[in-house]
């Protein structure tokens, strides 16, 4: 069972790199194999929504973490095996192409070396200690001890293979028993992923979350921070069974979007069974995670930003109507319309959200007037990110506090940048004007 999400959420959380921007995937991915990288990407695109599956993956990775395990296979050997086993004599339907005798021999020697290393690893105490992989370990041993592979183990590592033997091994490995070898490679790729993530947990001092059953309505994160930010300020937020919606306020540049990304990224990664950037976390498994932070205009259908927001809210309403337990986040809901409509729309939507006890919601807004009405809802909580004034210069603590703030410093920042002076003077002579502090 996989967690429901969508492209908007994946892009909001910046899970994958874009242009020169690093993604969350890049932090965790230190896989040695292309197969491992592919599996990790799949894990990022398809988090889990089954508690047992999440706990199993956590246990596996933490087991390798405790051992401070290193990847036990040689990268060059795996490259040769992958090249050899994935070769297709007629892949594009064109003229037939054959592997050279040398390429066949190199591939077979690589397979022989890999089999010996894999058998040694499958019988190692380190792998045996990872109890959650015992079934997979036994399956690997069963494949390696298959009668078909007896000739392979009769060869020593780096053995010199005659042409006649190479021809026989080629038929055995690349034709008759190819699927078995692919299963063994898949196991190795998963080991690659688990050890990669375990090493990341050690390096970055990440923690594994506590996982609670669906419907228990627990969502608590302590000291959460964004893993891509240097000197990030950690924050904590708890949404217990009695709280299903957080209304977040704060001035521009106070850190609302960064906090929202940090919190929702932690929840998303937790559903993968990976360690997270926080000091502690406990969460109930959910059916889906949806965020709306950087919602673009939909020019393809001629939709304004406001209409794109409306469509997004509609999609969330449809998902909720199916009785699913969801985490839904909106950063500055209805920013694309006037203040009056934004207030009315925010109240209608937030009031409806507070009635959905099986889901969790975080709404950030500059429409602080909505808080007066929402305070009537027992399931709503209120937090803000404060601004501290140093004369006419705003400074930000980036530390979450309970309550609502009316901080608005847009015009102050505009004045501090000297924009009005530039416009009045017309920047005569092309001279730059220093901002006033």
From TrEMBL:
Domain DNA mismatch repair proteins mutS family as annotated: residue spans: 243-431
Pfam families in UniProt: MutS_V
Signal sequence bounds: none
SMART domains for this protein: MUTSac (SM00534)
GO biological process: mismatch repair
Protein keywords: ATP-binding, DNA-binding, Nucleotide-binding
Source organism superkingdom: Bacteria
Alphabetical list of PANTHER family matching this protein: DNA MISMATCH REPAIR PROTEIN MSH1, MITOCHONDRIAL, DNA MISMATCH REPAIR PROTEIN MUTS FAMILY MEMBER
Protein name as annotated: MutS-like protein
Organism: Pseudobacter ginsenosidimutans
Taxonomic path: Bacteria, Pseudomonadati, Bacteroidota, Chitinophagia, Chitinophagales
